[in-house]
Amino acid sequence: MSGLRTDVELRRAEFALRAELAVAPGEVLAVLGPNGAGKSTLLSVLAGQLVPDRGRVELDGVPWLDTERGIAVPTHRRGVGLLAQNPLLFPNLTALENVAFGPRAAGVGKAEAREIAAHWLSEVDVAELAGRRPGQLSGGQAQRVALARALAADPKLLLLDEPLAALDVDAAPAMRGLLHQVLRRQDKPTVLVTHDVLDAVVLADRLVVLLDGCIVEQGPTREVLSRPKEPFTARVAGLNLVPGVARDGGVEFGDTVLSGRVAEDVDQGEPAAAVFAPAAVAVHREPPGGSPRNALPVRLAGLEPRGDVVRVRGVVRDCSLAADITPAAVADLRLTTDDEVWFAVKAAEVAIHPLSGGSSGA
């Protein structure tokens, strides 16, 4: 069968990894989990850097690993492209030479390899930096060159290991938007390891949650994050996500347009999401007036005490939302399950992101 399929078990001292998953061609699978969950261990197994105690890894029906049959294809023969937290560029080579390294190592002639490298530098919007060495690049520029290098080798499988974790707050959104554009054009499977829920929202078609070496949740990204089953998933989800299609400065959701600030570029009419924190939401019995704000009618699904606040959960058009308000506000509003109320949030508190997976709530 086409795509990536893996079913592995690995034990190391007090840690054990047990993972069974599949990634279709062109699909991006995000692996989300806390430190020590086994995310990097899983990537090392896929890349061939670790051999598990038992299991099988195959791509497009070709076994890379089969412990029963004694098959263990080494890393350099797997055709894996890796983009890690740090660019790991060769310091003595220019950006163009760094990107051309993969094709050259695969036997491509020097001139053709440089053409391939120039193409990918252009694809990641750093063509003008071809002659610079890594020491002359910013963190975001170096990570773009590293992405071009990974793609220039025409990998059969792309592995992204916390690719935005080392970037500053200004460079990360631009790089995330670039990855969104690049990955949607890929026809190879991609596995993304991250601890940032926005990476999963923007980049991944499906999401796997890994805890203590075990997969505890998996499914389409939006479904897993909107209906978390594990406390960890609910904690990291911690954001409201309203899916729809991009409109000028906002997201069209049903017959409502939620306005906000564009955090990452998204084309008009493309899948997009309005993302905002529960703490930014006000709850009203009647449609709110006054200063311009976004408002959605919701049916209350539950009330959860959380220290000094109460998390009010509501549903609109199969989209789960949350608001954090004071116990006094809950009492004043006399909120109970199944009430119909309004959730309001100021546009300044809403971030507009591209949405992966091609599905929307519109």
TrEMBL record:
Pfam families per UniProt: ABC_tran (PF00005), TOBE (PF03459)
Keyword Secreted included in the entry's annotation: no
Keyword ATP-binding: yes
PANTHER family: SPERMIDINE/PUTRESCINE IMPORT ATP-BINDING PROTEIN POTA, SPERMIDINE_PUTRESCINE IMPORT ATP-BINDING PROTEIN POTA
Lineage, uppermost ranks: Bacteria, Bacillati, Actinomycetota, Actinomycetes, Pseudonocardiales
Protein origin, superkingdom: Bacteria
Molecular function terms, GO-annotated: ATP binding; ATP hydrolysis activity
Keywords noted in UniProt: ATP-binding, Molybdenum, Nucleotide-binding, Transport
GO terms classed as biological process: molybdate ion transport
Record protein name field: ATP-binding cassette domain-containing protein
SMART domains per UniProt: AAA
Organism: Saccharopolyspora hirsuta
Domain ABC transporter: from-to ranges: 1-237
Domain Mop: from-to ranges: 289-354
